[in-house]
Specification:
The complex is a heterodimer.
Chain A: H1 2-9, E1 12-13, E2 20-25, E3 28-31, H2 34-39, E4 44-47, H3 62-74, E5 82-85, H4 95-105, E6 111-114, H5 127-133, E7 143-147, E8 150-154, H6 171-181, E9 190-193, H7 212-219, E10 225-229, E11 237-240, E12 243-247, E13 279-286, E14 289-293
Parallel strand pairs in A: 1-14, 2-13, 4-5, 5-6, 8-9, 9-10, 10-12
Antiparallel strand pairs in A: 2-4, 7-8, 11-12, 13-14
Helix pairs in contact in A: 3-4
Chain B: H1 2-17, E1 22-27, E2 30-32, E3 35-38, E4 42-48, E5 57-58, E6 73-78, E7 82-87, E8 95-100
Parallel strand pairs in B: 1-4, 3-8
Antiparallel strand pairs in B: 1-2, 4-6, 5-7, 7-8
The chains are: A alpha/beta, B alpha/beta.
Chain lengths: 295, 101
């Protein structure tokens, strides 16, 4: 019993060499050692904040860094069969940006699931996003599916902002989530993924979700819960009971730490430092997560 | 083509007639000035100076820009009187208002 917990608590943050790897061991999601990834297929790959279309000083070639990340994942002897993109696929929600992103992401053979970030729906209804990725959810943005015994839940928290700037699910989605979890065995591992952090990391910058406490309340009875987000372009994590919260790096550009500067914009770093601040996340079968950078 | 030229001329004409456009700069995740009062018929022009995109989206749906990249602008002409609150829909903690009277 203590072993999986200790594994969960020793998440490794690596360079953008492979991504965060999550594995499921004894029903507990833990990060995966890159050496493990050589012999065992990861349960899934998480990619986040690709921001295709961004071309400023912080990274003039975001397509190039995404390609670099995908090449490293593709070079694994057993690449992941499941890929989760936790949003901000594009920078400005433009059709051409989505097309470029799709073309790049299609080089991975796994099944791709995408939740939108606020950059993907700047037009309001998210027309370009849902035209491409809306099918599994019937254009609602939230849905669930099972993969290798794990229950995956995709949530959308970027179209219903609260006046204080926090993301929100809204009542319909919250009711759906309650139904989706009702009657489910507490021993089934749960993975929840959404763009904005589902717990409050820093309210002044809107780094959180208004119904975070209610969501955590619904998940608390489960033995293994992994909550994956993007949005903040850096790794922040915490473990609360059986719930493991984790935010992923971006493949495009880093952002400042909470409260450091006027706002959560692109952080310009010396070019040599950039690859070490970009990356992806992979989950081993044990649901152990491994974050790897591009360095 | 002829239609296009006519439309273009009208746009130029309209711009010339409104030398008194009011300008709001979006900088460091703030609208500046944050609360502005204008006369009916005034065109307000927002320009984003940040490296991060922003939008201009009114609470009541009266106006909404696309994502404004760095140095992009958005214009809206205010005819109705009233106070119009708006936010950046990408960073909804950025809030401001236009009062028309």
């Amino acid at each position: 019993m203590t072993e999986p917990f200790s594994r969960r608590n020793t998440l490794k943050c690596l360079g953008l060499s492979a991504g965060t790897l999550f594995t499921l061991s004894g029903g507990i999601l833990t990060t995966m050692d890159p050496a493990e990834a050589q012999t065992q297929a990861p349960l899934f790959l998480q990619i986040s904040d690709t921001h295709i279309g961004f071309n400023k000083e912080a990274n003039p070639d975001v397509a190039g860094t995404l390609r670099q990340a995908l090449d490293k994942v593709g070079a694994l002897p057993r690449p992941p069969a499941l890929i989760l993109h936790t949003g901000d696929v594009t920078h400005l929600s433009r059709a051409a940006e989505f097309d470029t992103a799709n073309q790049l992401l299609s080089q991975l053979k796994g099944e791709l699931h995408v939740v939108p970030g606020e950059h993907d729906v700047t037009d309001g209804p998210g027309t370009e996003f849902f035209a491409r990725f809306g099918k599994p959810s019937g254009n609602r943005g939230y849905y669930s599916f099972d993969h290798q015994g794990v229950h995956f839940i995709a949530l959308i928290n970027v179209m219903n902002f609260k006046p204080n700037g926090l993301g929100a699910l809204g009542d319909d989605q919250l009711a759906w989530l309650k139904d989706d979890l009702a009657g489910r065995s507490a021993s089934q591992p749960i993975v929840v993924f959404a763009h904005m952090p589902l717990w409050t990391i820093y309210q002044p910058w809107g780094w959180g979700t208004a119904e975070g406490e209610q969501i955590a309340g619904m998940l608390r009875r489960f033995g293994s819960v992994t909550v994956l987000n993007g949005h903040i372009h850096q790794i922040v994590q915490k473990v609360e009971g059986n719930i493991h919260f984790h935010t992923a790096r971006s493949t495009a550009y880093p952002q400042p730490q909470a409260g450091n500067g006027p706002g959560p914009g692109p952080l310009v770093v010396p070019p040599a430092e950039l690859p070490g601040m970009l990356g992806v996340t992979m989950a081993a079968r044990s649901l152990a997560l491994t974050d790897s950078t591009l360095a | 083509m002829k239609l296009f030229i006519t439309a273009f001329a009208l746009v130029l004409g309209a711009q010339a007639a409104h030398a008194e456009d009011v300008s709001i700069l979006i900088k460091n995740f703030d609208f500046g000035p944050m609360n502005v009062t204008v006369a009916p018929g005034t065109t307000v022009v927002w320009k984003n100076l940040d490296g991060e995109p922003h939008t201009v989206a009114s609470a009541d749906g009266l106006f909404r820009s696309m994502a404004l990249d760095q140095n992009d602008s958005f214009r809206f002409k205010f005819d109705k009187t009233g106070t119009f609150k708006y936010i950046c829909s990408i960073h909804p903690n950025m809030r401001a208002s236009i009062t028309v009277k």
